[in-house]
Amino acid sequence: MKPIVIIGAGIAGLQAANVLHEAEIPFVLLEKQAHVGGRVQSEHFQGFILDHGFQVLQTSYPEVQQSLRLPDLDLSYFDSGAYVWKENTWHPFYSPWHDSFSILRALGDGMINIPDVVKLARLWLKIQLDSKPLSKSTMTAMEYIHSLHFSPTFQDGFLKPFFYGIFLDETLSQPASLFVFYLKQFLEGRAAIPTAGMGAISNQLLKALPEDSVHLNMEVESLQEGKVVLKNGETIACSKIILAANPTAAAYLLDIPLAKGAILQSKTFYFSADSFPNEGKLLHLVPKGEGSNILHFACLSKVNPKWAPAGKELISVTTLKTEITENEVLKELGQYVGQEKLNWKFLKAYSIPESLPKQGFWKFIKQKAHKKGIILTGDYTQYPSLQAAFASGRMAAEAAIS
Ligand SMILES: Cc1cc2nc3c(=O)[nH]c(=O)nc-3n(C[C@H](O)[C@H](O)[C@H](O)COP(=O)(O)OP(=O)(O)OC[C@H]3O[C@@H](n4cnc5c(N)ncnc54)[C@H](O)[C@@H]3O)c2cc1C
């Protein structure tokens, strides 16, 4: 029996492979890089654990709960909320769903007002009562946020900057339905990172697979009827093809031009320091202003000291501008941490031109794949997140089996 070929060993491809393996269906998983994980990787660097771009695992994602052995990942959790910059000071703002007294503190600090609390409660109720809230809305996340009429402090100090970081997009032009979906996950679940870094997620999926089923450094160059052709000239005959490559690579293999604006980029810098001014396990949301480049920064070693060597702190700083340098980042951070205290040592930066796909750009790829009998999977086939990568990987394997 010819195997099913899976192209790409990111989360979606690894998940598809695991589902086929459980069903005892023969498959081969081909990955062009020397390692699996795609966008979910970690690196050990001078005693620090650095993820390739700041990202978190939302424990409330249904597919995450179904597909991963979470206790084996030894998760460390962020607190729910963020530091908000107001009147030249960082104020911790904790989610009222995780800490009911926090709302009083936020009211006292003037970060939120009573009408905001009422509007938030109404929004929460809407999310609870409707399984797919705003699924028919044509509004963007930005338009929807504006329609809620929150106070400028809550909207511009917390809500918008928090979602700039989730969407990796300062225009918030993704659908409003995606905004409420993510909001629900953050209200109900928790954001976590494994002790060994996000790459532990990919490694857990890999470990469950037979060794001889995963082939690294194997780049697929073209797709043909009943076979795939590798860049090294080899061909592999197959019963079906599951295309789990990232959007740009999938578009190339299907010979479809990718529209401008379909992919969002980001860059994460890592710094080490002897100390860090704030104790909370929270992101610091940098307000959007003229000349501002940074989205957020966090002291990751406050969340898990094992991500840094003893006596050191690990700080991540994320921006959407891939051309920006560590010196520009440090200069901008000076106003939020104090230039005189800012003797952070630059460790490494990860520039990720293909960080997240945007919704609404994938119709032609899907149509072409369908026409050619190729099963597509990957976050972009649903929405940008690990949940979608896991879910679409499972669906692709099930489609290949049926
Ligand atoms: C900076 C950043 C922050 C993020 N933050 C979050 C977050 O906080 N929460 C969240 O849920 N999600 C987050 N995500 C999104 C999440 O990481 C992705 O949705 C998910 O990893 C996508 O997995 P995938 O398998 O669909 O694609 P990919 O990870 O892109 O995998 C595709 C694989 O295909 C391989 N490939 C490509 N072409 C070929 C070829 N021709 N032959 C063989 N192999 C090929 C690639 O090398 C790659 O390994 C973030 C992503 C980034 C980059």
From TrEMBL:
InterPro entries: Amino_oxidase, FAD/NAD-bd_sf. Keywords: Oxidoreductase. Residues 11-400 form the Amine oxidase domain. Gene3D superfamilies: FAD/NAD(P)-binding domain. SUPFAM superfamilies: FAD/NAD(P)-binding domain. The keyword Oxidoreductase applies. Coiled coil: none annotated. Its EC number is 1.-.-.-. It is an enzyme of class 1 (oxidoreductase). GO terms for molecular function: oxidoreductase activity. PANTHER family: AMINE OXIDASE (PTHR42841). This is NAD(P)/FAD-dependent oxidoreductase. It comes from Aquirufa salirivi.
